[in-house]
Amino acid sequence: MVKGMRMDWGRMLFYLLLTAFALLMLAPLVYLASSAFKPTAELFLFPPRFFVMNPTTKNFYQLLLVTGTSFVPFTRYIFNSLIVTTAIVAGGIFISSLAAYPLAKHKMPFRSAIFNMIVFSLMFSPMVLQIPQYLVISRIGLMNTYFAQIIPYLAAPVGMFLMVQFARQIPEALLEAARIDGANEWKVFWVLVLPMLQPAIATFALFSFIQAWNDPYPAMVYSTHEDMKSLPIAIQTISGGAGVVARVGTFAAASFLMIIPTILVFIITQRMVLQTMAHSGLKG
Amino acid sequence: MSSVNTDAVTSKQIVSKSIVSKSIRSPRIPSKLKLLGADIKRHKVSYLFLAPFLLLFTLFTIVPIFTSIGLSFSYYNIIESPRYIGLSNYRLLFVDDDIFLKAIGITFKFAMITGPVGYIMAFLLAWVISQIPIKYRFFYTLCFYTPSITSATAMSVVWLYLFAGDRKGLINYWALKLGINHEPYLFLQNVNSIVPVIIIVSLWMSMGIGFLAFLAGLQNVPKDLYEAGAIDGIKYRLQELWYITIPSVKPQLLFGAVLQVVFSLQVFDVSVQLVGIPSPLYAGHTILTHLFDYAFIKFEMGYASAIAVVLFLMMIGMNRLIFKWLGRD
């Protein structure tokens, strides 16, 4: 009896601490959301308040009117980000699932060499390759096009690695049965492999969406025209740069708009992501 | 259906014919090469599947590695063509460029704290979550993972307010009210607090892909291992963690470690958003900031490539160590 009581107290304390920490992690996001809905009077209130008292959507309207230093409307940045991100996610899924199938299931020469190269490229940040990538893009004459912001990011090593690891556990017998029934490799891929890769595809979509959506550098480096810039750059312009606190309301509203889609994508994909990550292990 | 079958047969016949029909001159190596060639031909379809990925991967990952190394031995300002200058860039970097040496110091200081602390925190939180009932897991996973998917740019609105250097900043407000400080502390301007602030923000964002990998790995440790452990005399949760759980999620631990090394050495975004380029007295200047500064602001591509090569080697070197340490059985 006494022992059971103590167990429960311990458990309660454990949940209390864990929940407190979880809410602490969430606090900056809650503050962001609450600032996005604050009227101007509350934003500059002293003493500062964490939660909003009289929520308003004025900041969001302001966002549509106020633009950065140029005459490009805010919706244009959203449009650019949507185009680039959608293309990177869709294109990446297509070429990576195509490549994952033979890398996991065919026994062609150079297979392990190619896979080892992918593992090797996990070990450094693509940021160190920016200069040659920039030179390639400007040589092919793709500067200031959407392609420039898309193509370098299609072959993503982390997503590719997860895709191959996941594809390995597709039963060989299943593929063999389809081949005996006369299906060619394309049909095996399209009808059998692709549906079975679904959790890995969802995971790929999540990671490449987050990466593409949040990364300000492609638009910064590969375009010189304001109307080709993406959402993160628009937000930087609104904020006025590091250390400047101007237009806090619109800044918060824009940031809020930018973070919502990433959270939604995670909530939608999370179950399949955890299924995929179970196969993420690396062997030394 | 039948047409597919006959197709396969004829292509096989063609392959075998081509092997037979060509005469073999010197028996050893060419025959091996020819066998390889035939093998490649037989797997033509596999390579077709791989082609789009391989093409882009080669063009934007493999070739750039060699281009970077090549350019790092040159003077190149984009307008004129690159001129070979030997090791000058590296000499300049390590002997004369005080700001670069400072950037290395700052990056290391940052990585030495964010790397291990973020890694251990991610693992422990994933472990704790795997211990609680399934219905509660999603809420905690969401709380810990969400910060890592936010954009550094978007979140800067919160950090600039939290760490603001006047009485309106949240931390300063409470520090003044509780009497810890007598005047507002300039978190983002003071050279002593810039790196700690960047570390705190990065730790907040560090429960990323590695955390998910740990979580998934931990949920899939076979239950009978724990039962066997209990028979063998394991009594406490911590014993269980050390003797059963950690060994069975080692592959995930290695994967997470590799990503954590890259994450902690590529610190850049948060620093640029919070303290700008250049930061006050270069106190938030990292290797990647230096690289970006020379590549895309000053357009000295040769010099910037040398910086990129140094950072590349640091990442690979660290990961080799990690592999040696975690990868052995």
TrEMBL record, chain A:
It is a multi-pass membrane protein. Residues 78-269 form the ABC transmembrane type-1 domain. Its main location: membrane. It is found in: Cell membrane. The keyword Transport applies. One of its GO terms (cellular component) is plasma membrane. The chain crosses the membrane at residues 77-101, 113-134, 146-167, 188-210, 248-268. One of its GO terms (biological process) is transmembrane transport. Keywords: Cell membrane, Membrane, Transmembrane, Transmembrane helix, Transport. PANTHER family: ABC TRANSPORTER PERMEASE PROTEIN MG189-RELATED-RELATED, BINDING-PROTEIN-DEPENDENT TRANSPORT SYSTEMS INNER MEMBRANE COMPONENT. Belongs to the binding-protein-dependent transport system permease family. This is Carbohydrate ABC transporter permease. It comes from Cohnella luojiensis.
UniProtKB/TrEMBL annotation, chain B:
Its main location: membrane. InterPro entries: ABC_transporter_permease, MetI-like, MetI-like_sf. The lineage of its organism: Bacteria, Bacillati, Bacillota, Bacilli, Bacillales. Belongs to the binding-protein-dependent transport system permease family. Keywords: Cell membrane, Membrane, Transmembrane, Transmembrane helix, Transport. GO terms for cellular component: plasma membrane. The keyword Transmembrane helix applies. The keyword Transferase does not apply. Residues 104-322 form the ABC transmembrane type-1 domain. It comes from the Bacteria. This is Sugar ABC transporter permease. GO terms for biological process: transmembrane transport. The chain crosses the membrane at residues 47-79, 99-126, 138-164, 194-216, 301-323.
